[in-house]
Amino acid sequence: MNNLDKKLPLEGLRVVEFTHMVMGPTCGMVLADMGAEVIKVEPIEGDRTRHLLGSGAGFFPMFNRNKKSILINLQSPEGAEMARRLCATADVVAENFKPGSMVKYGLDYASLSATNPKLIYASLKGFLPGPYDHRTALDEVVQMMGGLAYMTGRPGDPLRAGTSVNDIMGGMFGAIGVLGALIQRGITGRGQEIQSALFENNVFLVGQHMLQYAITGKAAEPMPNRISAWAVYDVFTVKNGEQIFLAAVSDAQWATFCDVLGFADLKADPRYGDNNARVSQRDVMMPELRRRLEVFTAAELTAIFEKAGLPFAPIVKPEELFDDPHLNATGGLAEVRLTDGPKAGQTARAALFPFTMDGQRLGVRHQPPKQGENTDELLQGLGLNAAEIERLRAAKAVA
Question: Taking the complete model, does pTM exceed 0.90, yes or no?
Answer without folding.
Answer: yes
